[in-house]
Amino acid sequence: MLILECPYCGVKAEETELASGGEAHLKRFGPGSDDEQFHDYLFMRENPKGVHFERWRHANGCGKWFHAARCTMTMEVFGTYAAQAYEPPQEIKDKITAKRPGWSWREFSDASE
Amino acid sequence: MSTRLAKQGRLIDRSKQIDFTFNGKRMQGYAGDSLASALLANDQMMMGRSFKYHRPRGVVASGSEEPNALMQLGKGDRYEPNQRATTTELFSGLTAASQNHWPSLEFDVLSINNKLSRFLTAGFYYKMFIHPRPLWKHVYEPIIRKSAGLGEAPDKELKDADSYEHFYFFADVVVVGGGVAGLQAAKAAAASGAKVLVMEQNSHWGGRAPVDGGTIDGDTPDAWIEKILQELRGMANVTLRDRCMGSGVYDHGYVLGYERLTDHAPGQGGPRHRLWRVRASQIITATGAIERPLSFAGNDVPGVMLAASMRDYVVNWGVNPGQKVVVATNNDDAYRTALTLHEAGVEVVRVVDARDTGGGELMEAVREKGIRVELGRAIARVKDGPRVTKVAICAQNGEGGAQEEVEADAVAMSGGWSPVVHLWSHCGGKLTWDKEQAFFRPDPNRPPLGDNGAGFVVAAGSANGNLGLGAVLEDAAAAGSQAAEAAGFPAKSVAASKGVAEDEALMQPVWLMPAKADIKLRMKTWLDYQNDVKVSDVQLAAREGYESVEHTKRYTTLGMATDQGKLSNINGLAILADSLGAEIPQVGTTTFRPPYHPISMGAIGGEARGEIFQPVRKTPIYDWNDANGADWEPVGQWRRPFAYCRSGESRHDAVNREVKNTRENLGLLDASTLGKLIVKGPDAGKFLDMMYTNMMSTLKIGKCRYGLMCSENGFLSDDGVVARIDEDTWLCHTTTGGAESIHGHMEEWLQTEWWDWKVYVANVTEQYAQVAVVGPKARKVLEKLNNQAGGGMDLSKEALPFMEWRDGQIGGFNARAYRISFSGELSYEIAVAASEGQAFWDALMEAGKEFNVMPYGTETLHILRAEKGFIMIGDETDGTVIPQDLNLQWALSKKKEDYLGKRAHLRSHMADPDRWKLVGLETVDGSVLPDGAYAKGEGVNANGQQNVIGRVTSTYHSATLGRGIAMGLVKHGPKRMGEVIEFPGTDGKIYKAKIVDPVFYDKEGEKQNV
Amino acid sequence: MSNPVTATNGAQFAGMATVADAGLQGMITLRGDLSSKVLAAAVKAATGAKVPAQRKIETSESGAAAWMSPDELLLLVPYEAAVATTAELAEALKGEHALTANVSDARSFFTISGEGARETLAKISPVDLSPEAFAPGDFRRSRTAQVAAAFWLEADGSLRLVCFRSVGAYMFNLLSNAAHPQSAVGVYQG
Amino acid sequence: MKRYSAFAVAREALRYHTGWERAWRSPEPKRHYDVIIVGAGGHGLATAYYLGKNYGITNVAIIEKGWLGGGNTGRNTTIIRSNYLQDPSAAIYEKARSLYETMSQDLNYNVMFSPRGVIMLAQTEHEIRGYKRTAHANALQGVQTEWISPERVKEIVPIINLHGPRYPVLGGLWQERGGTARHDAVAWGYARACSDMGMDIIQQCEVTGVRTEGGRVAGVETSKGPIDCDKMGMIVAGNASHLSEMAGFRLPMESVALQALVSEPIKPCMDVVVMANTVHGYMSQSDKGEMVIGGGTDAANNYTQRGSFHHIEETVRALVETFPMVSRLKMLRQWGGIVDVTGDRSPLISKTPVGNCFINCGWGTGGFKSIPGSGWAMAELMATGHSPLTEEFTMNRFKEGKFIDESVAAGVAH
């Protein structure tokens, strides 16, 4: 049973207060996109063994969506941040780099590489 | 025989005698007894039968690791099978019965399996009963299943008489185990100011230190324990809980505590078990160690016990398990048992020490008492029977020849100790093999990792592999400080109490006694008592290629019994390693899974039973509905009346009555469950244009529009009427149960995709009671209410036309009236404050009397809409249906560049002209089509399945039309009007139906537009 | 016009804590920019309270303002005044991007009082309710058994809890069950 | 291979069972195989078995990172049923179920298939409609199922409480020929038969890379060295994303935890499998007497084989409500597995962008019951390039919007 800090409430909320919302930082493709783009947007999910960025909602709480950077092998949480972002904040990326040198996830990676 | 001693028994109160029964026999014990100690005091050594061979079994341990002494406890609604006698506190009126035998414990027919044991080896059933095939199903399997299980199942109608609850608690440091290590660790952690919770599974504190002796800070362990408990109780930051087992460690510092509140006093009131759900920053496992049996032939005969457990029975409960005892060991600790027995007046026939060099000062002390100690010797076999009678002794380093036989009625055995590493391991803590002491211990470099990526479990004391009293206390103090520091409390150095006990010589691993025991002995040498797994079984598994430890476990069932291998795992691993010519750590362990010790399902479920099993959502009119014949239908968490059944009326008749009355007179529907969302802001129109497939931004203030929602994947997800309230405010109705999900859906898009759009959404569903006033007399009843109140809003056709809404007063109630219709009748949906909902309903019922008003339920709602060909989300849709399938193209805005689902509809399968489309269906004979029936096509597909060309989505008897009507999705349906297609029923009949227009009633819509 | 009623109609249960229907309470949802001065003034005018900090409730003689999320407050006003106050708020916030809604009738409202109040709630909510962690003026939205709720602690040590009206009966049964007279845990009392 | 029989057991008993031979060989890998199957779980072993049995392809290696049958094959709740709604699902699950009926004889290994019957309870009007629809569909698909009344449910399941205050039992969908089997034995039986055909099962051998040449797989790099092949099948459930990336393509799939638990063993009290989807729980009694219990999946990506305890709580309280006597049983053990879930929660059995590489994954919570059907179809696809059973389960369906959605009838598919 995970605990994640809601960046809006500042509470360490346990999993039963939260709803999991899948992969973070998806780019929406609507009319005008080709079949491949639309397919990838809807179905092609990152499924990494290790660093993952995902969405959660503080459903039984403030109701806000936020992002978490988490390791799927150890459940370590590198940090949480507001959902209104196109990419993880540098501070979070640095934290991950410190703990998982050489990490990469989609277009994001250890900048020191 | 086993008897109560005149002296000893630190846990019992001899002034309080307690009566109980075992297998119907009346017996006596004392307050403080466990059921096991009380049975032993009554010379009841045999306490059960094993699982497979039904061999007689006695108690072998004194704690939760006990595999044999399992009882059926209690009666009626407090009955429970498989309770360990060793962890059951004796109480007055306790009734216990032994398990897994017929007709009696002493004489058990299935002990024939014991005679057949040569055939019934590990995995025999995988190799047998294969031919002929029918015999497996009809003969063999029924026999195997009949003989399965341990205790009798509770009665099929049993309703648990007890209640259960949960409790959330937060601590900086949780200490699991209230032995001297746990107490010492708690003290060290608490000194730093950390908030500490200590859990102890027993009703007494201190663990086994008081039995094992030695001194702590110069005091007896008992005295020291009393003192430190007092200290801890005096600290505001420390919570001590006894009868509370740390049952599992989970991710991110989650610990479960299983508190048994009334098991020792059933029926005293209050919850029976409380499941503590604790979030800890750090967890200290001070869970002690468990003694290992020795593997010799006949090591399962009643009277063979773990040496330290035998000592427990003498010291803690003043019970003497036998008169003449043989002690067998590979380590020094068992000598303590010899000394304890001797002191209690029991004859120690022999100490058989497998080590050639023997032990240290404890051995000398034993010899000084005149007890015969034999080195390099082993037990060759214990004579089979319901009780130990004879023990054969031989050289350890041989095959079991040249035996000397001695008379004895009990055997104390010690194969060394294994730290209890379960809680360390539950969440991924790794182990390391300690070669010297021959056990797995926690590897401090590989602890389970918490949310911050750092270790969150610290092992302490013997659970950490420190067996000597002095080392235990030092390790525990260090663990306490370490945990507090890791939890963010700079450690105050707390000096460990000084423990002094006898020096012990090294143990010597002995995995088989004698070392080269022949196959006949190995086939009588038990590893797993409860599941009847023997040394020969593990060797067979290895020989057959089941080499992985998990294969061996599963093939032999080693460690899969209710003790989860607490006694058998290491011994079995060692035999497996030996068979494979590998080292034990290479073989590894099986996975440790929670719970440490079985916990009640009741406790896991907690308070959620009966009335509060799940929330029932109630509308403001719920109680009235309930009192007026509502036949309830669960819709999500809501309950809605399916129909209002009058006394003696069937559901079917009630529905027909409601349908007709609503069409002819006046019906009321409690529509409060429909979701109501306010969407407001400068970008609200733009936003709703994305949410709905049709255009909402152009809706005029005061008007309503029916809207469709699709998921991004193109499927219909919800529908409802949207009303424009003012320049930047809309009110969106959702389906019942849609309020929360659509609210969430809107927030998701606003927060995560279009966060710069200025839109706020609020869910006001429950602010209102909403009543649909439906039927030709709808306007009349509302106008009557207004007349009675001396005025109110103008509800005329002109002032409030179809698909518009107005605020005002109706019958003196502040109300919002929507002129919308889901029935094809003249209809108003009126929203009033929920707190006034019942009063408004009452007023309508009263005023409606002269118009023959009747409430109607969801089934009538369904039929009325089906007669009109309106679709229903959840009936015509099922998550695979797109608007085009339902001929709803008109609701897909072509003007909008984008809306959720638009892109999805362009994919090839969604644009496929062969998709099944909505039509009406009329049976040729007027009967009702079966729900969910499929229309048969020509031939079969490549997998031999009948081809199908459509299916029924809704089907009803229409009281209005006096016949069956249905809607369905049919391949090329709209182009096949008038065709008759066939629906095979599951009743063997073929239903023939004609494809028709889905609007069955009032095709021109004259009735709603009056 | 009738007398409005609550979902649990004045129900009460006395066990290790006393659970009671707290009656009709005016409640207004306000969504907007919580840092806005206009909004602060409107809140003050409506409730007499200032805009609360994160996870706090500010109370005054006549009302209170509680922090629901970074862009939402729950305002407490007398029940009778809720409709008018909602309208006044809307008027005062006209130039702002804000939403006000009267939700007085959409809620059930309870008090949990007595020595066992904290423990009663701690049986059903995954929130640290120890005195060190939860003090008067603290406000928390969370889960209570299987439904959402918001609660806070009054200066007298009693708890106030708000949930949806439809689950008012469930909540009352749940709290009463948790307050069973023989179920004191003994960690936050005695 | 020495055949197993009661006679053989008796003969061996006389010599204290010292004469049994290994159930499967444990060879070192050869340099080249016609076919490499990655993953020695039930699906991988079954695929290999039918490649040999149906197509005579026996130069096959089955490569396993851990021990055979050690993934989801050995940690599921062993339910076998085929009462699915959609045609493609019903076809492959029914194929599997029918193969289970004769599996013990086919493999000469008693997998203890127990066709005791499976009931799916209907507890809402919506569920009634869903199951009646399934019953109609099944009748046309050649799957024997039946809609039964609450009274009949009670007859079949005496410990059930029909009149729960929240969700009374309104009937059920009954598949008399569904049931359970001994999960480990399925893997072991296939392994023994594969080994007997000369196939190499290589355990403790991790694939560390996939070598491709000209858009085709040439071989794999493993912890035991490089191995070449003409064709490759990836059948590794939750690890499929990881492996497919080595071959250079991606999968529409995520891996999440699914948990289960057992009670302590009690004497027989429930003779069938019961699934209650409204309250999210299902239960059967094993041949050992344990009540085997499962529920829904966790939501977040996870490779730890541990789930969140609140799912266990939800499942247990649902079962206590449905079977009140369960309240006084005890949970003996809980565990988790990693299940692979696709966009429509139906499997992928498909060709891939890499010509001679085939994928079989995404079984989610339905893996065990499908093992023989999945192996049969995958073998056909790999051997001939075409299988009617797999036709609808392609990777392309997500692009076309042609989903196979089983949640239509029942909230969850187990």
Report on this structure.
The complex is a heterotetramer of chains A (113), B (1010), C (190) and D (414). Chain A has 113 residues and is of the alpha+beta class. Chain A has helices at residues 35-43, 90-99, and strands at residues 3-5, 12-14, 19-23, 51-57, 65-71, 77-82, 104-105, 108-109. In chain A, a hairpin with a 5-residue loop joins β5 and β6. The longest helix of chain A has 10 residues, at 90-99. Helix content of chain C is 21%, strand content 31%. Chain C has helices at 37-47, 82-92, 117-122, 168-178; strands at residues 12-14, 18-21, 26-31, 57-59, 64-69, 72-77, 99-102, 107-113, 139-144, 147-153, 159-164. In chain C, a hairpin with a 5-residue loop joins β10 (147-153) and β11. The model of chain C has no long low-confidence stretch (mean pLDDT 96). With 414 residues, chain D is of the alpha/beta class. Chain D folds into two domains: 24-109 and 182-252 and 344-400, FAD/NAD(P)-binding domain (3-Layer(bba) Sandwich); 118-179 and 255-342, 2-Layer Sandwich (D-Amino Acid Oxidase, Chain A, domain 2), CATH 3.30.9.10. In chain D, 30% of the residues lie in helices and 26% in strands. Chain D has helices spanning 6-14, 42-55, 87-101, 103-107, 125-141, 150-156, 183-196, 240-247, 309-322, 367-384, 397-400; strands at 32-38, 60-63, 79-80, 118-122, 146-148, 171-175, 179-180, 200-202, 207-213, 216-222, 227-234, 253-263, 273-276, 281-285, 291-301, 330-342, 348-351, 357-361. In chain D, strands 1, 2, 8, 9, 10, 11, 17 and 18 form an eight-stranded mixed β-sheet that branches. An eight-stranded mixed β-sheet of chain D has the order 5-6-4-13-14-15-12-16. In chain D, a hairpin with a 2-residue loop joins β9 and β10. The model of chain D is unreliable at 410-414 (pLDDT under 50). At the B-D interface, β7, α3, α4, α14 and α15 of B face α1, α3, α5, α7 and α9 of D.
